[in-house]
Amino acid sequence: MNENGLEQELAQLQNVYNLLTEFLVKYSFQLVGALLIFLLGLWVANKISNLVASQFEKHEIDITLSNFVSNLVRILIIIMVGVIALGKLGISITPMVAAIGAASLGAGLALQGMLSNYAAGVTIIVTRPFVVGNTIEIQGVSGVVKSIHLGLTLLTNEEGEVISIPNKHIVGEILHNSFSDKLVEIRFNISYASDANQVLTIAQRVLDANEEVNRERAPQIGINGFNSIGLEIGLRYWVPTNSYYQNKYQVNLELINALRQAGIEIPCPVREIHIER
User: Fold this and answer.
1) 179: Cβ contacts below 8 Å, ≥ 6 apart
2) β-sheet bridge partners, residue 265
């Protein structure tokens, strides 16, 4: 029984060997040809992709859009080369396309949230409502755009935190883009007896002396309102987002020192309490 079993196994191995040998003899040239076509296609895909990326870089087009287009070109070329290689082997791709279509339908139903993020990512990359380095605010969250991916967008703030926002929460929402700077708004009161023109001049001088305050967007300084405490002075100016709080605090310190040095009174709210006996 053992000898018979060993002979059967040897016979099966011999059959497998014969089938492989026959297959290699019959299809060896097709296999080599298909492999060469595929390798050549990979080389061409990389070359064309790099050429597209270099042209985008030459014309100073956004890096996110450049990466998306170059990768898309590479993928399309690889797919076409794969189809040609399969045809070289005599394999019909029609059943494969049908199978891929059915699988894609099932995957699409199961991954609706992820696919919506990808679709929104493509919209962001194509329409470019913002680019890397811009300061955006979306749904109460703000920061500097660190990178843009198909599924999500990464922001960073002055504290070094990385904020991940799914792209489907960006497209179709109200988006604020202040580019590389962020607006600082300051309000403080002076007494009605103080010289408002002098205070506005001091505030302008403080902002002009600070190198971090944006010169292209002129600061806005004026009387914001009148209240029971005194005149309300308002300042609006732009500073780099990555040092927003640092610049704001520095300007506040310089402003209060300049006002005190000029003898400007900054009133505090006073409440009088009368106790009847």
Assistant:
1) 133, 134, 135
2) none
Fold of 134-179: SH3 type barrels. (2.30.30)
Considering the domain 3-91 in this protein, what is its CATH number?
A: 1.10.287.1260
- Residue keyed to tokens 């660190």: 146
pLDDT digits (tens, 9 = 90+) for 37-73: 888 888 998 999 899 888 878 876 667 667 778 888 8
227 CB-near residues (< 8 Å, 6+ apart): 189
Locate the domains of the chain by residue range.
3-91, 134-179, 181-262
146-150 LR contacts (CB < 8 Å, sep 24+)? 147/64, 148/64, 148/121, 148/124, 149/121, 150/117, 150/118, 150/121, 150/122, 150/125
How far is Cα 173 from Cα 48, in angstroms, rounded to an integer?
Answer: 36
Residue 131's nearest CA partner among 150, 118, 117, 145 is 145
Element (H, E) at 210: none
Give the residue among 193, 185, 208, 213 at the shortest CA–CA distance from 258. Answer: 208
Domain 181-262 has what CATH class?
alpha beta
Q: What is the C-alpha to C-alpha distance for residues 58 and 213, in angstroms, rounded to an integer?
A: 32
SS3 assignment, position 78: helix
Angle (nearest 5°) at CA 270 between 269 and 274: 155
DSSP-assigned beta bridge partners for residue 240: 181
Record the tokens describing residue 125, joined without a space.
């990359």
pLDDT single digits (tens) 205-252? 999 999 999 999 999 999 999 998 899 999 999 999 999 999 999 999
